[in-house]
Amino acid sequence: IKLVEFASLTCSHCAEFAEASAVELAETFVASGRVSYEFRNFVRDPIDITAAQLVRCAPPEAFFALTDQVLAFQPALFENWQKAGEAQLKAIDTLPVEKRGLGIAQAAGLTDFFATRGISRDQAATCLADPAKAQDLARRTEAQSKQFDITGTPTFVINGSKVQGNTWAEIKPLLENAGAR
User: Fold this and answer.
1) Cα–Cα distance measured from residue 110 to residue 125, given in angstroms and rounded to the nearest whole number
2) Model confidence over 70-91: pLDDT tens digits?
3) From edge to edge, which strands make up the β-sheet containing 155-158?
4) How many Cα atoms are found within 13 Å in the side-chain-facing hemisphere of 29?
5) Which stretch of DSSP H or E encloses residue 89?
6) How far is the C-alpha of 146 from the C-alpha of 91, rounded, in Å?
7) Is the pLDDT at 142 greater than 90, yes or no?
8) Of 122, 119, 142, the residue nearest 41 (C-alpha)
9) DSSP-derived pairing of the beta strands 161-163 and 36-41
10) For residue 121, what are the contacts with CB-CB under 8 A and spacing of at least 6?
11) Residue 177 to residue 49: CA distance in whole angstroms
12) Whole-prediction pTM value?
C-alpha cells in the first residue's frame, strides 16, 4: 500500500497530521511492511522552500526526522519571522537571488535551528545558494498540483488515487480498508 503525503513545512494542518500520525504510521503501518510512505514537499511560500532545501542538506536518512522537527518548530519559526520586522524582510527581497534563501533562513531562525541538528551555517549557506534547487521544488509542486489536483495541504494519495481527508483519524481507516494493519 503506497501512501504519498503532499505537505508544506509551513502548514499548520501538516504539522498536526505529523504529530498525530508519527508513531503509529511509522511503527505499525510502515514497520509491518504493508505501507510504503512517501513525503513530498508541496512548497507554498519562500520560508517553505527554504526549509525544504535545508532538510535536503542533511544525509537522506535524516529527511523524515528533520521534516518532523521543522513541522514541530513552526510556532517559533513564525514568531521569528514576525520579529524580523518589515525593514529586514524588505531587505531580503533586495538581495541577489543566490543570497535570498540564506536571508530568509536567518530571519526565520532556520540557520540556528539546523545548526543544532548538524547542518552548519556554512553548509546551510551553500545549500541555499543554488536558486535552481528552489526552482526545482517550485516546478515539482506545480506539476504535482496539476497531476493530483492538489488545492491544499496536506493532501494524500493512496495507491495512485487522491483521497478525501487530511487528518490521521481520516487517513488511518483508509489505510486499514486497503489492507494495512
Assistant:
1) 11
2) 999 999 999 999 999 999 999 9
3) 36-41, 2-7, 155-158, 161-163
4) 24
5) helix 63-93
6) 34
7) yes
8) 142
9) unpaired
10) 111, 115
11) 34
12) 0.92
What CA–CA distance (Å, rounded) separates 100 from 31? Answer: 39
pLDDT band per the 50, 70, 90 thresholds, residue 181: confident
d(CA 76, CA 18): 17
Place of cell 509491518: 32
pLDDT tens-digit readout, 30-84:
999 999 999 999 999 999 999 999 999 999 999 999 999 999 999 999 999 999 9
d(CA 82, CA 80): 5
Coil, strand, or helix at residue 46? Answer: helix
Give residue-wise pLDDT tens across range 120-132. Answer: 999 999 999 999 9
Largest Cα–Cα distance in the chain?
54
Q: Residue 144 — left, alpha, or beta (φ > 0 → left; ψ -120 to 50 → alpha)?
A: alpha
In the three-class reduction of DSSP (H, G, I as helix; E, B as strand; rest coil), residue 119 is classed as coil
